[in-house]
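Sample pair:
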Amino acid sequence: MSKGSVAFVLALLCMLCTVAPYDLRAEITNRVVATVNSDIITLFELNNSIEEVTGLSVANLRLRDEDRFYQVRRAVLNNLINQKITEQQIRKLGIKVTERDIDEAIEKLKEENNVTQEELLSALRLEGITLKQYRERIKKEIERSRLVNYEVKSKIVITEEDLRDYYREHIEVFAETHRVKLARILLKIDNPGSKEGLATARDLGGQIVKNLEEGANFSDMAKAYSQGPAGPEGGYLGWIPFDQLDPSLKKRIVKLSPGEYTELHRCPYGVQIVQLIDERKEGVKPFEAVRDAIYSEIFKSKVEDKYAAWLSKLREESFIKVVF
């Protein structure tokens, strides 16, 4: 072989050594791992999904716990197969999602979560998601929701008897402990042993009580004078189990009707006036009060059951081949 031929062969071998690993990786990661009717799932797609679910690279996950890796891989692949089947049904039924549908869904989510466009974009950047990818996610969610509405929700019937049966069978769930909704005006005393501090707080408290007796709004007084953490919200403390109240406060609250308030009295942080906004006695919530909640619970359960059965039937009717 001439020197020129040898040089050419060596150059060719160097080139193959450089290129082959890349081509080999591309071939391996893009090989088909499952066929679902006319669609395929590649190893690249599977590995990406595993990383999204676990937050770990496939290599790291496998190094940490090989048994766990295979469990996750099976679960993720099974989910991808379900996704392919639902996507095929979406195409079959001609379900379409427009750009306007996506815009409206995003605006609704922003409104519900009190998020601006800038805050949304910032959150997406932190997650490493582009706006285009986010819009694609929203699109798929709308498609799946419409598919479920068409195939499952529209076929669910819940009768009044179903609701009442559920109420009777889960009556313990609707048991209610004695709770009170309270608001407070707190005047703090920095030094509990200071007679001067106590006198100053009592003087201000006495003036607040006088204002209340003359018709001042309790919430307004709390916003203006209360030094407790709930002061800016009108002193609102929310619903509290009656048994969790301090014994001395219980004795005062039990004498009140909703809307009334205690006299000015000492408390661990100073002096306070506490208003009883509302009260719920111990007992069982009436059926009418929980009817809507029961309907939602039954509906959700039926949707999950019917969707699982519908998907299982589709899988049985589909050609699915897994290749590992």
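The longest helix spans residues 287-317.
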